[in-house]
Write a structure and sequence with these properties.
heterotrimer, A mainly alpha (289), B mainly alpha (272), C alpha/beta (357), A: 289 residues, 72% helix, C: alpha/beta, Rossmann fold, 27% strand
């Protein structure tokens, strides 16, 4: 019963914490004004190279499209991937968790009445909101300049699916990296695990190229391509999927199925993260860090 | 000069001892950088399943292109092994005041700061680069003439010198600004342009970009010139490139020297 | 203690400077200013600072004159932020001054000539200059190369220094496994390998235990007298000063407040002596009042501060009073004198700032 009374107050408290965190995060970014202005635009530089590379590839091949992508599609794809990555990438999350375990600062979450995972999620949302507020202008500028590469704006359903997939990709990215970080309870140094993860992620998320290009790569099992396997893994939902949805590469029943797979992965990773935290803290308190 | 070689060898030996103390870590670092590299190679292989060459009529078909990639690996691994770790550590040294200790030693500060750490694991990629080159070169349509073999190592050195100049100038920026967490990011973004043959930068946007990255920030000369010498027929354009690379290397070294001296003069030292 | 801030106590007037024989360090009107940017608090202010940053100039060292002769052991004292370390950095050429001149061993430090840098050493107590992951012996080797020390000489010096500090077995152990005190000892060895003529020490005993401090004192005294080395040291521990330095330079707010011998500081700035009486029994209030001095009672012990000039006159009287079993007369502790020196200067500054506004 006291719980019911405490809830609104706690919620209010929570909001205030969020607001403070948001403000501090924004201030921190504004202080480093050099990075702040350049950083976001610099992120587009690798895409410039990719665009030129693909233009050259299309110039030399007789095909009109590669894996269903015209040259314009490819450019649009890379740009959209930047948007998805802005949602799903979690710089420093896993490393930060592992560090807090290593240096013992995680202890305070065992003592304080705050749930660590929720706290991290809140901090990350604040972080992301700040980033979007800052990045929206350079993003809008780049997209406006490159509007010629994009197909016509898709229908409302596609846009809704696109937005849903972005939110899911944020959650998926968060829980995957948080779970990785929790491995710090078991391993002294998770940076190598994180690196391995990033490697696989880089290749299979579609960050490097559209996953559809893997449709011709055999897996050894007859009739199953690498793209078919990747579809069932969580990685492509952190970069490829949302972009493909916007470009109309995934439609109808396939779209519904893919969204379901993504949602399922979010649930799986959230549960895994919880379990890792429970087991990890139990182990931590048992061994005294 | 002899003394500097002796000191460098001492540094290198100390770093090797250190690397061998943390052997597991060393091996892991090798494996990771090899992992990234193979990922990129896999991507190129994938690209070549869709096209015979990169850019129509550029001559960068599969084998020459892999010779190009190999050249890039060799140059980058040299920079990553010998100069990058020191430059990265400089950020930390400025923050903690460790730079003070360097400045009181009777030794050229630029030498000490750019060479005191050696990351041997970064050489793993270079070795793969050499292997890749050994695979690609015999498969070229035309074997490289002796003069190409003569020029190749010289141009590699020029490429390294150009990049070294960039590293030093970025490090100098670290000293001036007192902080620079994104040194590595800058590095990544700048060198990113040197990863592919210069020919891909064409068209209304690409042309000016190519000019910019050749003459203003000579990043396109780093890999392109040596790679072209070894993997493509020698033409008049090649020779222009060779001259440009040599000049750019010299300019980069001189500029880095000037910028670094200025930065040291303006160094404030972390407060006690 | 009014006289303290009515007149600055400068001993480093030209005549005193001339008295220093064979000057190794000669500093005139040396000043260092920093421009610091205000980092405003609050979101709106942060946004504003994107376009316009406010800055002000901080004078870390303002026009210092100082001459140090060969073989002197000088302590730089002063509260935190007084400019001691900045002065040390100027003298070792790490930073360039805004104004003024300095010569150390005949060189302008901030030109950083190799010939100059080979002849001095700087040790910073809070920073580690040895290779963290390697045994100190490796760092020593590197020093040998950097300072071009002849191999036979290098080995002789190293063995000598290592034995003086009793750290021979530590030089083959990775530095990260050593305690702070052990590390400091090895830092000192590294700094002295090239037999510098001038040694700058920035808080060399910070955070060390009493035993390690003592060892380092003995060591520094030994090396300094044997090599006739000039040493300038900053510290917050009066033990360092008392054990090592004949000359003391007090710096506050970037300026030299006092320059003279340690004995003189005590002589000049102690107005009182501490007299401790052991009484037969715990005194009552009346007895205490009879002494007529401010005092503190700890059971049968009474501690009084008595004006120095009156000591001779009042002491017999006190001794004559009944029940005094024992008496001791001591100087005010050095810490207290120096703390008072710093404080009085701060009051002085506040007063003059108040007068100015």
């Amino acid at each position: 019963m006291s719980d019911a009374v405490a809830r609104p107050a706690a919620a209010f408290q929570g909001l205030r914490t969020w607001w403070t965190m948001l403000k501090i995060s924004l201030e921190e970014r504004l202080v480093y004004r050099g990075d702040f202005a350049l950083g976001t635009l610099m992120r587009f530089l690798p895409i410039v190279t990719q665009v030129f590379l693909w233009t050259a590839v299309f110039g030399a091949t007789s095909r009109a499209d590669i894996g269903g992508y015209t040259r314009n599609d490819i450019v649009a794809y890379y740009l959209l991937t930047m948007v998805t990555r802005a949602f799903s990438s979690m710089p420093g999350l896993a490393g930060g968790i592992a560090r807090s375990v290593r240096d013992g600062s995680v202890k305070k979450f065992l003592v304080q009445p705050v749930d660590y995972v929720s706290f991290l999620l809140a901090a990350r949302v604040a972080h992301k909101l700040v980033y979007y507020a800052v990045a929206v202008l350079p993003f809008a500028g780049v997209f406006f300049l490159c509007r010629g590469y994009f197909p016509p704006v898709p229908d409302a359903t596609t846009i809704a699916a696109f937005l849903a997939s972005l939110v899911l990709s944020f959650l998926l990215g968060f829980f995957m990296e948080a779970t990785l970080g929790m491995l710090g309870f078991w391993f002294m140094e998770v940076s190598s695990i994180v690196f391995g993860y990033m490697l696989v992620q880089y290749l299979l998320s579609g960050h490097m190229f559209p996953i559809d290009l893997l449709a011709g790569v055999p897996t050894g099992v007859a009739g199953v391509s690498l793209a078919d396997v990747v579809r069932w893994l969580p990685f492509e939902y952190t970069a490829y999927f949302s972009s493909a949805v916007w470009l109309g590469k995934v439609r109808g029943a396939e779209l519904v199925r893919s969204l379901a797979i993504e949602a399922a992965w979010v649930v799986v990773m959230a549960v895994a993260c919880r379990i890792a935290w429970r087991r990890g803290t139990r182990r931590y308190s048992a061994f005294g860090g | 000069m002899n003394r500097y070689v002796a000191i460098f060898l001492t540094f290198a030996r100390a770093c090797l001892v250190r690397d061998m103390t943390f052997r597991a870590n060393f091996i892991l670092e090798c494996v990771t950088s090899l992992g990234w590299m193979s990922m990129n190679l896999a991507f190129y292989l994938l690209v070549f399943t869709f096209t015979p060459e990169i850019g129509k009529g550029t001559g960068w078909s599969k084998e020459p292109f892999f010779a190009f990639v190999a050249t890039g690996l060799i140059i980058n691994s040299i920079v990553q092994a010998f100069f990058m770790p020191s430059a990265e550590e400089l950020t930390e040294m400025v923050r903690t005041g460790g730079l003070d200790a360097v400045l009181v030693q009777p030794l050229d500060a630029q030498f000490l700061l750019s060479m005191h750490r050696v990351d041997f694991s970064a050489l793993a990629n270079g070795l793969v680069g050499v292997g890749l080159l050994a695979w690609a070169v015999p498969r070229l349509d035309q074997p490289p003439p002796p003069v190409a073999w003569l020029l190749y190592p010289i141009l590699i050195v020029c490429g390294v010198a150009i990049l070294y100049g960039f590293v030093i100038m970025l490090a100098a920026a670290t000293i001036l600004m007192g902080r620079n967490q994104s040194l590595y990011d800058f590095w990544f973004y700048i060198t990113n342009f040197s990863r592919y043959p210069a020919e891909i930068y064409s068209g209304p946007w690409g042309g000016p970009l190519r000019m910019l990255c050749t003459f203003v920030i000579p990043i396109l000369l780093v890999v392109n010139v040596p790679a072209r010498v070894i993997a493509q027929p020698l033409t008049g354009q090649t020779w222009i490139g060779v001259a440009a690379a040599v000049i750019a290397a010299a300019a980069s070294l001189v500029a880095s020297r000037i910028v670094f001296q200025r930065a040291i003069a303006a160094y404030r030292s972390a407060s006690s | 203690m009014v006289f303290l801030y009515t007149r600055r106590m400068h001993n480093s007037d030209p005549s005193a400077a001339a008295a220093v024989s064979d000057p190794v360090i000669r500093v005139e009107a040396l000043a260092k200013e920093y421009r610091v940017y205000d980092k405003p608090e609050g979101l709106a202010a942060s946004v504003r600072s994107l376009f316009h940053r406010t800055s002000r100039v901080v004078e870390a060292v303002k026009g210092v004159d100082l001459t140090v002769g060969r073989g002197e052991f000088v302590a730089l004292l002063g509260p935190n932020g007084a400019g001691k370390t900045t002065l040390l950095k100027l003298l070792s050429g790490i930073i360039t001054p805004s104004r003024g001149t300095a010569r150390v061993l005949g060189h302008v430090p901030w030109e950083r000539a190799d010939d100059f840098r080979r002849r001095f050493a700087l040790v910073m107590g809070q920073r580690n200059q040895l290779w963290w992951d390697l045994p100190a012996a490796e760092s020593f080797r590197l020093h040998q190369e950097i300072y071009r020390i002849e191999p036979s000489r290098f080995e002789r010096t190293r063995d000598e220094l290592v034995d003086m500090l009793g750290v021979r077995r530590l030089i083959l152990q990775p530095v990260r496994e050593l305690s702070l005190g052990e590390r400091m000892k090895l830092e000192l060895v590294a700094a002295l390998l090239h037999e510098p003529e001038v040694l700058f020490l920035d808080e060399p005993t910070i955070g060390l235990d009493v035993v390690a401090q003592h060892t380092i004192h003995e060591f520094l005294r030994g090396v300094q007298s044997r090599r006739r080395m000039t040493v300038v040291l900053t510290t917050h521990y009066m033990k360092d000063v008392a054990a090592l330095c004949e000359r003391v330079v007090v710096i506050t707010r970037g300026d030299i407040l006092y320059d003279g011998s340690l004995a003189e500081i005590v002589d000049r700035f102690t107005t009182h002596k501490i007299v401790t009486l052991d009484l037969d029994e715990v005194p009552d209030q009346a007895t205490i009042e009879r002494f007529g001095f401010p005092c503190e009672c700890r059971g049968p012990q009474v501690i009084m501060r008595i004006d120095r000039n009156r000591i001779a006159e009042v002491l017999p009287e006190i001794l004559g009073s009944a029940g005094v079993r024992d008496v001791s007369v001591e100087d005010v502790p050095l810490e207290e004198i120096v703390a008072e020196l710093f404080r009085s200067d701060a009051r002085d500054a506040a007063a003059s700032a108040g007068a100015a506004s």
